[in-house]
C-alpha cells in the first residue's frame, strides 16, 4: 500500500460565510479588525462572539454603537442526526437583532437559517452555511460587501387574469359570493 492509500479520509468542514455591510464602512472603518477573505477555524465547543469588546469577542466591530457582545453563534449537531447547525443568540440588552423577519430580544435565540440576513442598527450581514462533516470545528469566511445587502422581498401572489382581460379586483364585490359557471353554459 502507498502512503496515499493509507492516509485518513479527509472530512469536509462546515463553513459559515458572512458578508458584512454598513453604509458608513468607508468613513468609519468599523470592520478594520475583521479578517476578510481568509478562512478561520473555530473549535466546535467555542462560541463565536461578535461585538466591540476585544477581550470577549473574537470578531470585533469598532463602533461605540455596537454592544460589548452583540450576538453569539453556537455550532451544534441536531439530536439523532448528523446535521450540524448554528444557533444565533442576541447578547445585546439595547439593540434588537433581526434574523430575516424574526426579531430577537436580549438572550433570545433561534437556529440560523442556511441563508439569511442578520441585522442590527445599520449593520447587515448576509450569512450562508456551507455544510460539512467535521464535528470538531467549523470555519468562518468573512467578506466585505461593496454594495448594500438587501432583504429579499416577498412578492404578492399574482392572481391570474381572466380571459376577458379584466381583473376581478378592479370591481368591488359588494358582498356577493363567487358563482361557479360551467363552460358549456
UniProtKB/TrEMBL annotation:
Biased composition (Polar residues): 160-176
Domain of life where this protein originates: Eukaryota
A single BP term in Gene Ontology: innate immune response
Primary localization class, coarse: cytoplasm
Any Pfam family hit: FHA
Keywords: Cytoplasm, Immunity, Innate immunity
UniProt xrefs under InterPro entries: FHA_dom, SMAD_FHA_dom_sf, TIFA
Keyword Cytoplasm: yes
Family (UniProt): Belongs to the TIFA family.
This protein's name: TRAF-interacting protein with FHA domain-containing protein A
Lineage: Eukaryota, Metazoa, Chordata, Craniata, Vertebrata
